[in-house]
Amino acid sequence: MVARELLGKYLISERDDDILIAKIVEVEAYLGYEDKAAHTYGGRRTQRTEVMYGSAGLAYVYFTYGMHNLLNVVTREKSIGEAVLIRAVEPISEFDNFSMRRFGKNYAELNSYQKKNITNGPAKLTKAMGIDLTYNGLDMTIGEKLYIVEGESEFKITSSKRIGIDYAEEAIDYLYRFYIESNKYVSK
Fold this sequence. Notes:
Layout (H helix, E strand, L loop, with lengths): L1 H5 L3 E6 L2 E13 L28 E6 L3 E7 L8 E9 L3 H9 L8 H5 L5 H8 L16 E4 L7 E4 L16 E4 L8
Antiparallel strand pairs: 1-2, 1-6, 2-5, 2-8, 3-4, 4-5, 7-8
């Protein structure tokens, strides 16, 4: 499953002359047509979800709850509609840039709670990395603006139920959330 393979890889965002690098530490898979938690369940197609029906490697960024951007990676060939939500990342470089975007102050000024919570959720990481709707539809395989590259591979992976999908009937029990065990940036 692609979701597991994304763990440990580096997510890179280039914005405003900054290059931010973070290790992917938590993801959730959404398996399209038959997954009641997926935006493409039952073949649903909207302007917002159209990118999910595109090629593997595209960024699916959407705005939710009237205030947050969330980042997904399309994972299947065209017309399938599957993606993986990036739930949490661990900052690797440019800590001050992550911190300024997320909290408006330098990393050294953050307390321990803020440091732990800088990117430990899907909305937190997009804010800290400057990822917004302008990234929607970008090809994350070509190394421009937003992309994923090889990273680390020595860690233990844990799976669990996905978070925040109480509406999804039996799909709430699917073990499609994967994370690096004991990583302090994993959410909840």
